[in-house]
Automatic annotation (TrEMBL), chain A:
PANTHER family: AMINO ACID ABC TRANSPORTER ATP-BINDING PROTEIN, CONSERVED COMPONENT OF ABC TRANSPORTER FOR NATURAL AMINO ACIDS-RELATED. This is Amino acid/amide ABC transporter ATP-binding protein 1 (HAAT family). SMART domains: AAA (SM00382). It holds the Pfam family ABC_tran.
UniProtKB/TrEMBL annotation, chain B:
Belongs to the binding-protein-dependent transport system permease family. LivHM subfamily. It is found in: Cell membrane. The keyword 4Fe-4S does not apply. It is a multi-pass membrane protein. One of its GO terms (biological process) is amino acid transport. PANTHER family: AMINO ACID ABC TRANSPORTER PERMEASE PROTEIN, BRANCHED-CHAIN AMINO ACID TRANSPORT SYSTEM PERMEASE PROTEIN LIVH. This is Amino acid/amide ABC transporter membrane protein 1 (HAAT family). One of its GO terms (cellular component) is plasma membrane. The lineage of its organism: Bacteria, Pseudomonadati, Pseudomonadota, Alphaproteobacteria, Hyphomicrobiales.
Automatic annotation (TrEMBL), chain C:
The chain crosses the membrane at residues 25-42, 101-120, 126-145, 178-196, 227-251, 263-288, 308-329. InterPro entries: ABC_transp_permease, LivM-like. Its main location: membrane. It comes from the Bacteria. It is a multi-pass membrane protein. One of its GO terms (cellular component) is plasma membrane. It is found in: Cell membrane. The lineage of its organism: Bacteria, Pseudomonadati, Pseudomonadota, Alphaproteobacteria, Hyphomicrobiales. Pfam families: BPD_transp_2. This is Amino acid/amide ABC transporter membrane protein 2 (HAAT family).
Amino acid sequence: MNAPLLQVDDVSRRFGGLAAVSNVSFEVGRGEIVGLIGPNGAGKSTLFNLIAGALPPSSGRILFEGEDVTALAAPDRCRRGIGRTFQVVKSFDSMSVLDNVVVGALVRHPHAAAARRKAAEVLDFAGLAPRAASPAGDLTPPEKRRLEVARALATEPKLLLLDEVMTGLTPAEAQKGVELVRKVRETGVTVLMVEHVMEIVMPLVDRAFVLHLGRELAHGKPADVAADPGVISAYLGDRRRAS
Amino acid sequence: MTAQIFLQIVASGLLMGLIYALIAVGLSLIFGLMDVVNFAHGEFMMLAMYAVFGAVVIIGIDPLMAMPLAVAALFVVGATAYLGVVQHAMRAKANIGMVQIFATFGLAVLIRGVSQFLFTSDYRNVPAERNLLGGKTIELGGVFLPLPQLVGAGISVLAFVGLWLLITRTDFGKALEATREDAGAVALVGIDKNRVFTLGWGLGASLVGLAGAILAIFYYIHPDVAAPFALIAYVTVALGGFGSVFGALVAGIMVGLAEALTATILPPALKSVGIYALYLGVLFIRPKGLFGSL
Amino acid sequence: MASQALSAPLAATTAAHDGRRRRELIAFAILLAAFAVLPHLVKDVYAQNVIVLTLMYAALSQSWNILGGYCGQISLGHALYFGTGAYATSLLYTKFGVIPWFGMIVGGVIAAAIALVLGYQLFRLAGHYFAIATIVIAEAGLLLVHNWDWAGAATGIQWPFVPDSWLTFQFGRDKLPYIYFALGLFAATWLVTFAIEGSRWGYWWRAVKDNADAAESLGVKIFKSKMAAAAVSAFFTAVGGAFYACFVQYIDPDSVMAFKFSLLMALPAVLGGIGTLWGPVVGAVILIPLMETTSSYLGGTGRGIDLIVYGLLVMVVALARPEGIVSLFSRRKAPKA
């Protein structure tokens, strides 16, 4: 069990002639919070889909707990312990909030009663308890993001992939989101998060990996990455100048 | 199979195929525009057949002359169906796909009921003495070409050319294309989406109306006449790819050829087997149809 | 995560869930009792016929709802399974003397097998392509049976006249046994749906319907889920078809496999509330008596008034209550616009 939790090994993905992700390699260790950052169109979401198994890579390998999972489809990777959220929220709108989370809990608890119990605990953990009985379609956007996290947590992942869960939140809401992510890590779950709101990500993550035009631009401690001239010109510079 | 029989199959298949393509293209057009499958499409065709029949009997003109009338009438029918039913179906907050299916299906049953009420379920034919083309056949090197189908196929080709010009050369065509690309964004450039949808339904219904007017020349007319043609239209559209005008043309011809071929080698009762086999075969290889890009 | 005590709102939600399930079972028991008593109050043969058909369509629509409503795969070709059940039972009985009770099960298993074979290909198709393919395959099946001489081709199969007997499930005049069987079939489909709603399959199917990508990310195997729903749905639909054959004692291709049966199975669910436990039965109780009476009182004129009523009804319900009639009774607040 000495292998890193996740190893992305020289992974590329092309759509037609377009390379969305090119020869990307990195690792995520157990218990880390790693930020995957980069400007829009950098290939972050594609890379996420490759890790979660929603898309097969054109080349390269994905290893989880030292085992090659490249050929496994999304449901099997979920069983292995990779949970995810979606950039554009994909809730089950005809089902209640609790039932949404039950779907996730069923992976480890085949009996629905046990899964419901587990889902209820996760909802409490995620701070969605008051909304448990509401139809998911009635939630506010920040609540929907929280529901996505809760649903993924209910699968009891070892690695949680968070795809822009802070996007569109007010600073106060985002702060609550940050607290939730910290709380998740405290339960022993490793987190890989895509985010382009840098102010939120940088204080939260242990390491950052910067993607630009589908390629690795930089990686390391948040402070080092933020100081990297390439990163500044590609991404941070624009934001700093703008604000 | 002699060359003679082969040529006959190709000729018969091509002629009927072009008419099938014309029946189907309106369905495909409407689907491409707004993702709605019109389950009353066949009933629209049936109405056009009665329109031609009525014009021939009441005004006393030849069915060929009655065609523009049927086309115009069906434009109104299509636009009304959109404004009266489909528009509301698209506003549904839940089960939207289901609402569309059953709203247009209910409309189909309603049209059939009203037709039966007004015209009874008797089988009717355009009176032979006023039907210039009816029953006439020409022979070309041993291949028999029924004149109504021949003229009908010609009209279908003209209609496809006209449709192509309409889509590529006119402002309405551009609005149509833009709306099918992105119905949300067109509002920003000043296109009234609802107006395009209304005209689109009118156009789709006119096209199947034209096909119905052609069929009225050589086919009997009654309230349930449309069911087998509607099924062929759905197969054609799924085969060609939903929303593809060119796909409907190619698939229509393929369906016509498959039917003509099966009718020659299998008992007449099984002539649709070839169509089903063709459809399923293609669909298993290309789930989105031949030209479907959705 | 260690199991801790739940917060108050969640404990309440969980308790409400259990309470609702219990109340639903009680309501179901009352409904069954009412239907069991009804034929003793209504002795008219015509009315009893309508009761049989209502219960049969409640059961069929409940079966259709498993695939169409819960799993979201809109089949417009269930007449194929209905016909499979009717033909399997009729052929086994008239050709080999196999009692219908056995034929029903055989028909159901064959239909489930057909559903799996078809599903293997069809579940790759999206939306409208799937719906159209189900129509075409059912029509192709109809055409084949039309030309299947051994099975009576277009003339169909007449069951021999035998004395009333539970063994052969044949009753000349007495409608009661049919009512009770139809009630039993409805009860079975309802209970299966009820059990599914509370089990992982129910959650998986609704998840697949609402958002397949999200379901996959949560470990749900989409294809397997759809296949299971299709097999269960086809099985009960075929048992319904087998029952219908026993009831009418004469079948031909158009009387059990026509496209209109596919629609008649879907409509009660659509009317009552698609993907809900009570939708199919509520829809059937309204739709079937209404259709039967309009077609016998107005249909006889041959002027299509029954079609006008039916068409208007379907259209108005689809437009006015997309969530079905049962949504009128649900205590759930309407979403804020």
